[in-house]
Structure formats: structure tokens, C-alpha cells
Amino acid sequence: MKPEYIYAIDDRLPLRYALIYGLQWTVIMFPGLIIVARLGGIALHMELKEEVRFLQFMLLTSGLFTSIQSLWGHRYPLLDGPSTALLLTLMVLAPYGIESIQGGLIAGSFILILLVVLGRLEKVIRYATPNVVGVILMLIAFSLLPYLTRIMTGVDDQHPHGEVATFSICIVLVLVMAGFSHWFKGIWKTIALLLGMVVGTAFFSLLGLPDYHDLQAARWVSLPSEVIPSWPRIHWPTVLAFACTYLAVAVNSLGSLHGVANLTDRQRLPASINRGIFINGAAGICCGLMGVVGMVSYSMSPGVILATRVSSRYATAWCGVILIAAAFIPKLAALLSVIPAPVVGAALFVAMGVQVGAGLGIVATGEMTGRDYFAVGLPVLLGTCVGFLPADMLAPLPVGVRVIFGNGLITGILLVLLLEHVVLREVRS
To answer: CA dist 78 to 49, 261, 301, Å?
Structure first.
């Protein structure tokens, strides 16, 4: 039985309430955007100006496609923003240049669109068993560990071996954010990561880490520069990497749609799946041209809806409008860029911890057998190990092999599909 809501899924809100609830969704969305923008800037070695541009276009695309999805796409109260799986692939492919990343993202998005248009999406999704979905969710988190380790230990040019003090502070921040998320109620619970980042930034400010000079120089209002930073280049290994990653994106969006449909309206779900994932692909092409991370439908909505008792999709549409407006305020983007990298790493560590728990929960939905232990455990272990392989060991391999098997997420996805549907395939009557 669905709960009673103040505003149902198709209810139009009075303007004052639309702005209030839209702003609430925006505040919830910001921590993820900050994390993606900072990690993307670090991976691509961006200067401040480039990082501000990156965040501006992340705000613009997230706002635009959140509104499009809420009003005409899947038509559910879901936020659409940068995908952690696509961010991970971008970080792995960073040494090959932004042009290859753009081309791979566009090609992977186009393949996803073709699956929807040709009616093949349902057949592909059949391969996403609970074991496959659980492994993908866990691998997204575990594959980020090499990057999180460097960020949370403060590894940089001045500290090539990291600092114990920085790592200790990050551990404390992880505990603080987890405590906030557990003990706080209502809106405060939903912005626990943001509050933790504020606390962490304030603490590092006492140590003199953030540099506020660039923030003071940033303009208040301006148009984002360089809509297309470079011409995309099609490079088949990056295309294959992003095509595999878009399987994770489709699975993620599918889970988000099912979760929110159970609380709002299941009748529109079949059509919403095709429209929503089609627009995920269209968003990927747009983001590829702009050189930013592609979109996915987030799964956080059910908890927020139950907390606020507002399930109107027009509230998330207004969130998109507010994000678009924020994209034209570089002062805001510069402020968010001030957040120290270790603080961002601690916030992502907490978020990925929750994702690991979700993956375990999905795997455990059925009664596990010895076969399942292999089908789940081996891909998770191998995918995690790949992230820690020395770069010099992989250097002699051909570029195509290095791009695929140097990415723990891709390696794990390929292995779990092989074990689940070929090597350890169950014969069903």
C-alpha cells in the first residue's frame, strides 16, 4: 500500500512551494556534483578555470536533464546527475586525453540509444541478475579505492608518500558523516554529506590548506566558456570501455525507476524505462560533446519522498531549473572548488560504503549457494585487484588491452557475466 502524500506524483505545486521543495532537492544534489567535479578535475589535471568550467557544465547538464526526465522522460520524481561508474571510467582513461574520453562517451551513449530504439534493451537487462547487479554496485565502490586512498592520504607533488595526519583527519570525517546520516532526521539527514564537507573544510581552513585567492577573483555571473572543449576522437578501446560501463548505468537507472515506482505509480513504469534510459543515452552524447561526465537516474529519491511526503515530479523539475541558474554563477562554482580534496574523498568514501551495503543486500535477496559465492566473490576480488596493479606492469600491453583490463569495473563486469551466464550457468527446467 502506497503512503499518503501532501502532493502526488502529477500534482502541480504552487510557485512558493515549488521553489522550496526544488531548493531542498538541489541541496541534496550538490554534494554529489561537488565530488564528481573535484575528482574529474584532479584526474584530468585541470587548472582552476577549467575546473570551474567543468562544474558549471555539470550543473547545467544535471539541471537540464533532471527537468527533461521529470516532465517528459521517465516522468518520476528522480534526480539525474553524473554517474559514478562513468566517472570511474573517465578517471581510468584520463591518460589517453579528453578527446578519446569524449569519443568513447558519445559512442557508448549511442549504443545505449540503439538498444532502446531497436527494442533490445529488455533482452540485455535479462542478463542483469541479482548477482550481476550486486557485483556492479560493489565494484563501482571498490574500483575507486586506489583513487580514494591517494586523495585521503594527501598524496601530491609536495607529499608523494602522503601524510598520516591527513588520513587520520579523513577517518574522523568519515565517522562524523556516518554519524550525521544515522542520527539526524528529515532534511538534515539528507544533507549529512554536505554538512560533513562543511565541517571538514572549516577544519582544514584552520590548517591553512584551502586557498581563497581564486574564489575572490571569480566573477559572480558569466556564461560558461568553451561549450565543446575539443573535437571528440573515436578510439575503439575507449568505446568498448564506455559501452561496458553503460551496462552499469542502465542497471543503475533501472533500479532507481523500480524503487520510485513502488512508492508512486507502477503503471507508467514500462514506458518510463524506455524513455528514461533513452534520455540517459541522449544526455551522454551531450555530455560527451561538452567533455563532462554522463548522466544516470539517482536512487536516493524514495527516502527523500518518504521523509517529505512530497512525490510531485514538478518539485524535481524545479530543482533542475535552480541547477541551471547556478551554472551561470562562477562564484558558486569557485566556492565549491575550494573544498579540499581529502574532504571530498572522505565524503565519497561514506557514499561508496552505503553502495557496498546496497550491493550486498541485492545479492542476498535469494538463497545463496556455493555457485553464487564464486559468481560474486571472484569478480569483486579480481576487479578490486586490477585497480592496484602497477602501471609499469601494464605498460607493455597493447593500448586496447590496457584500457579494458586496466579498469577494475570493466574487468569485473566481464567476469561476472562470464561466470553467471556461461561457466557457472544454471540449467533451469
So the answer is: 31, 10, 6
Give the mean pLDDT of 1-27. 80
**pTM (2 decimals)?**
0.78
> 320 lies in a domain?
yes
Task: Quote the domain boundaries for residue 48.
Answer: 15-423
Q: Is residue 171 part of a domain?
A: yes
pLDDT band for 427, please (50, 70, 90 cuts). low
Contact partners, residue 305, CB within 8 Å, separation at least 6:
5, 77, 260, 263, 264, 311
Q: Which of 296, 245, 259, 286 is nearest to 73 (CA)?
A: 296
Task: Classify 208 in phi/psi space as left (phi over 0), alpha (psi -120 to 50) or beta.
Answer: left
Q: If DSSP codes are grouped into helix, strand and coil, which group holds residue 297?
A: strand
CA angle 359, 95, 49 (to 5 degrees): 95
Strands 80-82 and 295-297, by their bridges, are antiparallel
- Domain-located, residue 10: no
- Please answer whether residues 264 and 2 qualify as being in contact, where contact means their C-beta atoms are separated by less than 8 angstroms: yes
Q: How many domains does the chain have?
A: 1
CA distance 118 to 121: 8
d(Cα 29, Cα 35) in Å, to the nearest integer? Answer: 11
